[in-house]
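Let us work through a complete example step by step.
Step 1: write down the sequence.
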Amino acid sequence: MTKKQITKSMGYILIIVLIIINVIGCKKIDKNYNKVIKSDDNLSNNIGQLINEKNIELQISEDKSNYYLATEEFSNRIIELLSNFYLVEDPLKIHNAKSESYIILNFMGYDKIYLYLNSGTFKFESAEDIYSIKRLNEKDLQELWCRASLKFIDNQLVYVGFDKSILFETYKYDVDNDNNNDDVYLYYDGAVKLMVNEQIITVSPFCYDDAFYATHSEPHIEYEVKVIFDEKTKCYYFLVCSKAPTCGYTMSCTVDLYQYSNDQLSPVYDFYETNIIVKDYQDDILTLLFEETNSIKSVKLSTEEKKNIDEYIEFLKECENKEFVGLEEWLFCANIEYYKFEDLDNDNENELLTIRNIKGGASGIRDSLISVYDFKDKNNIFVDMYFEREGLYDIEYFKLND
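Step 2: predict the structure and record it as tokens.
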């Protein structure tokens, strides 16, 4: 090779080196995995747009320098977490959040998000607005993030999810009729979820670790899963129930029913009737319509209850120009306080009974409402409802034998 050729080759090498240096200067390359964190001046900071994304690429940094990729499942889980947001307007909370340490969420095409673990708040790097996550108290997010799990996948550390704690494991069932038993269990990973044959559904989107540990002798929340097989349709149903003591002497319970069919797990019934209408009022008889179950119940009022309602009717006429009959949401039901499984019709199949308090707002009746459900016909799960004053059920026995 001649001196001229050597000089020409060195020139090409120098140009290549300069190109490489220029590329590296424009993009940050993480030393812990070989993906490039892309720089873009047109990044979005629209939270409404982000929470509708699916399977978007996410990189996470806990030390502001080293980024690790998240699986699509974990990316979706983080978006689900952020989707329950509201704008923080308290100046003190805004000031405190900005002084906290944070982790960085780097979604593809979006401005970096600072996630403040101590306060359960977050903001986009380039924006002033701070958002808080609903139903997460202080420290809850920090406890949740302690469950974040990294694993080596193809020789790279990747965020794969939050560690799981089994809450209730059932026997195995062949839910897809392939002659192989499938896993069925309830677990907690920052949310309570039911898994049936690899299909997962969220039962309760937000819980915190302390909810599952004892303060005295009893745990805060107890879960159970009842498995129901429909002989006609050959489908499996899963009744997920929880109970937790409240600040007083009552309980707070949840009841949810899910169906596994065609490799899908889906909710099939709402146990929480809330819309109650005054249907009629004659003498000392109040008739109520429960819209969700299309049930009509008549209640015999006490002298004091009738007096209160008559006074309330006068108030509505004089002050609000409203009629009492037809009034919606005058009455409302509290959360389920107790539930019980019992064979009421001696058919060797347990029915579900739930108890809730029903209240009449500023005036009117207060009573316990017992609802009965039967699962032999999934199209007609609701059976009937009764007020405690009817005397058909001993509420105290119900509670003591819960």
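Step 3: interpret the result. The two ends are 94 Å apart (CA to CA).
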